[in-house]
Amino acid sequence: MAEKSNVVMKDAKYFENRELSWILFDHRILGEARDRSNPLFERLKFLSITASNLDEFFMVRVASIKDMVNAGYTKKDIAGMTPKTQLAAIGRATHELVDLQYSTWGRSLNPQLLKDGLHIIAHHEDLDKEEEAFVDHYFQENVYPVLTPMAVDSSRPFPLIRNKTLNIGAMVRKKKKGSELEFVTVQVPSVLNRVVELPIKEGEIKRVILLEEIIERNISKLFLNYTIVCAHPFRIMRNADLTIEEDEAEDLLKEIEKQIKKRQWGECIRLEVEQGMDKDLLAFLKKELFIADAYVYEIDGPLDLTVLMKLYGLDGFDDLKAPKYEPKPVPELPAGCNIFEQIRKGDVLMQHPYQSFEPVVDFIRQAAVDPKVLAIKQTLYRVSGNSPIIAALAQAAENGKQVTVLVELKARFDEENNIVWARKLEKAGCHVIYGLLGLKTHSKITLVVRREENGIQRYVHLGTGNYNDATAKLYTDVGLLTCSETVGEDATAVFNMLSGYSEPLFWNKLSLAPLWLKDRFLFLIEREKKYALEGRKARIIAKMNSLCDPDVIVALYEASAAGVKIDLIVRGICCLRVGIPGVSENITVRSIVGNFLEHARIFYFENDEHPEVYCSSADWMPRNLERRVEILFPIDQPQLKEELRHVLDVQLADTVKACILKPDGTYEKVDGRGKKAVLAQEVFCKEAAKKAKVAKTAGESRTFKPKMAPTN
C-alpha cells in the first residue's frame, strides 16, 4: 500500500477535537445508565459518574479554553479549531449531554425507582401532613443550627458562592408597604446528608426527600421580617485550573496551598438553576456572577446528580445492584509468605482489581520491618484517605530505614490530601521530595534495597495505577514485582534522577518521559511499519486511557498506510480518526465502559514474530509524553507476555460492553447478534477466581494458563 506523506497526514481533517471526543466518552458512560440490561442501581451509579466527570471537565478543560479566549489566543488545535470555535461547540454538546442526563433521570430511572420501592419526593409540596411535621422538626433540630442565611443590600455585598456548592437563592420583600425586592441566599450544608429518609409507614415503600427541599420549605424561618417571593436552588462551577508559578515559589508546598484557596474565587464558568426559576432571580444571579446565557443550564430535576451515589448507598436494595466482587488472592504471593523469597522465584504479574492489591501493600509492610532492608524509595501520585502504604513508609523510617518518597503535590484535586501525607511522612523521618520543577511525576515505582547473603539485592514494583488501596478495587491496572538486576539498576537511576539531577548515560529496560519515552514509542511503531513494508509480520495492539498526541497519531497513520494492522483499545479521548482511505483503513478503535474503570496501559508489538509487550503509567497524550515523569516497562517472561496478550485479545473480543469508533467520529455498541456473548471484565473475574482455586488446591499456580480468546 502506498504511503501518504507525513505532511498530508498532519492535515486537521484527520483529527478529532480533544474536548468533543471527551464529551463522547461521557456519552458512553451515560449509555450504561440508559442500558436496561444493567441493574437499576448500577444505572444510577453511571449517571452519577457522568455528572462528576462533567464537573471536572468544566473546572479544568472548559476553564482553560475560556482563559485562552479571554487572552486573545487564536491558535488552532490539531483538528483546526480555535479556542473560540471550541467553546461554542463544547457549549452545544454539553447542553445536549445535560438534557440527555436529565431525560434519562426523569423518564427512565426515577419512574423505575418508584416501581421498585423507592420514592424520591421531588417537591416539598408533595409531603403529607405527617411527613410535613417530621420534616419541619428535622429542620429545626438538625439543619437550622448549621445554616448561615446571607442577605445582599447596600451594607452587605454579594457573598462568595463557593465552587460546586448547592445553594438556595430567594427574592424577598420586607413586610412593609413599598419595599423593594431583595436577594438572599443560603448554602445547603455539605456536612449534612443530602438524602433524608422519611418515616416508613406499614405497607408503604421507602420515601426520601432531598435536603434542599427541606430548607426551601422552611426558608421563611431564616428571614423572619421578610415575605418570600420565590426560592430556587442553584449551583455554580468555577475555574479550578491552578496556575502555579514554580520558578518563583520558594516553597512549593506553600504555593500550592495558596492556589488551592483561590479555587473558591475562580471565574464562574457554569451556572445550574432549577428549571422555571423566577426571571428576576435568574437575572440577578447572572449579573452578579458575570455569566452569559450560554453558560446557564436550566435543570429539570435535582441539581448535582452526584447525589445519586447517596441513593446507591441506601440499605435494602441489594437485589437492584450488581453482586459485589471481591478481589482474589495472587497465587504466587499466598498470605503470610515471605514476599522477597517469592519474587526471587520469578517475576510476578498482578491484575487489579481481579486480583488483590494487598500484596503491593504487603511488599511495603514487610520491607518496613525486615531487618535486611536498607532502603525504600517510592513515588506517590494519589493515595487513599487512610493509606496503609503511608503508614508502612512512616514505620520504615521510624525503624531506621532510609526512606525516600516523592509526593506529587500537583496531582489535580488531590493536592490537599497529598500535602497532609507529605507532612506526616516528613514528621516520621522520611526524605520527602515535592515533585519536580515544571513536571508532574505520574510514574508508579517502588524500589526496596535489601542486604542478602550474596550482596545487595534490589526489588522493584512497577505499575500502571496509583498506590491507592481504595481505587485498586475499582480501576483495572497491571503491576509487576521483579528482582531483575537490570530493572533494579534502572530503578536506582530513576530515584537518583528524581532526588538530584543525575541523568543516566543509558537505560537497561525502562524508558522515561519526558526525555526518552516518546521517542521509544515512535521507534516501536516505526519498526512495525518497516517490517510491514518488507513483508514481515507486523501488528500493534495498544490499550490506554486517551490518545491525542499528534506525533503518535501520525506515526500510527503511516504504519497503517504501510499495511500494519492496528487495534486500539482507548477508554476515553481519541483524536485519531478511523476508516480514512489510504491513511487509517487498517486501524480499529474500541472503548470499553464497564463496572470497573479501564485504567491499564498495555502495548503489544509483533516485531516480526518476536513479540514485545510493555506496560506504562503513560497514555499517548502530549502531557504524559512531554510534561510528566512517566515510565514504560517491558514484560519479559514468556508466560507473563501470554497473559497480557490474552487480556488484549479478550477485550478485542468483547461483544457486550465494547463500543466501536466509526469513520464519522461516533461510537456504536458492538453488534453481538449471532456472536457468543463475551464480557471481558466478567471473563477476567472468573479467571482470577479459577487461578486462585487452582493454586489453593495444587499449592502452586504457575502452570495455570488462561484459555486464549480468538485472535482478531
Number of domains: 3
| Major β-sheet profile | 10 strands, mixed
Instruction: Write the CATH homologous superfamily of the largest domain.
Output: Endonuclease Chain A
Question: If you compute it from the alpha carbons, what radius of gyration comes out, rounded to the nearest whole angstrom?
Answer: 28 Å
| Helix coverage percent | 25-40%
| CATH-defined architecture of the largest domain | 2-Layer Sandwich
Shape: globular
**Class of secondary structure makeup:** alpha/beta
End-to-end separation in angstroms reads: 21 Å
Strand content bin: 15-25%
Helix and strand arrangement:
Layout: H1 6-9, H2 18-34, H3 40-70, H4 83-115, E1 118-121, H5 129-143, E2 150-152, E3 166-174, E4 181-187, E5 195-197, E6 206-210, H6 211-217, E7 226-238, H7 252-262, E8 268-274, H8 279-289, E9 296-299, H9 308-312, H10 339-344, E10 348-352, H11 358-369, E11 373-380, H12 388-398, E12 402-407, H13 415-428, E13 431-433, E14 440-441, E15 445-452, E16 455-463, E17 475-482, H14 485-499, E18 511-513, H15 517-533, E19 539-544, H16 550-561, E20 565-570, E21 587-592, E22 597-598, E23 602-605, E24 612-616, H17 622-626, E25 628-635, H18 638-652, E26 658-661, E27 667-669, H19 680-698
Parallel strand pairs: 1-6, 8-9, 11-12, 12-13, 14-25, 17-22, 19-20, 20-21
Antiparallel strand pairs: 2-4, 3-4, 3-7, 5-6, 7-8, 10-17, 11-15, 15-16, 16-17, 18-25, 19-23, 21-26, 23-24, 24-25, 26-27
Helix pairs in contact: 2-3, 2-4, 3-4, 11-12, 12-13, 15-16
Question: Can you walk through the features of this model?
Answer:
The structure is a single chain. It contains 19 helices and 27 strands. It is an alpha/beta fold and 712 residues long. It has 3 domains: 148-306, polyphosphate kinase like (2-Layer Sandwich), CATH 3.30.1840.10; 339-508, 2-Layer Sandwich (Endonuclease, Chain A), CATH 3.30.870.10; 512-698, Endonuclease, Chain A (2-Layer Sandwich), CATH 3.30.870. Strands 14, 18, 19, 20, 21, 23, 24, 25, 26 and 27 form a 10-stranded mixed β-sheet that branches. Strands 10, 11, 12, 13, 15, 16, 17 and 22 form an 8-stranded mixed β-sheet that branches. A 6-stranded mixed β-sheet has the order 2-4-3-7-8-9, with helices on both faces. Helix 15 packs parallel to helix 16 (550-561). The radius of gyration is 28 Å and the shape is globular. The two termini are 21 Å apart. Mean pLDDT is 91; it is low at 246-250, 700-704 and 708-712.
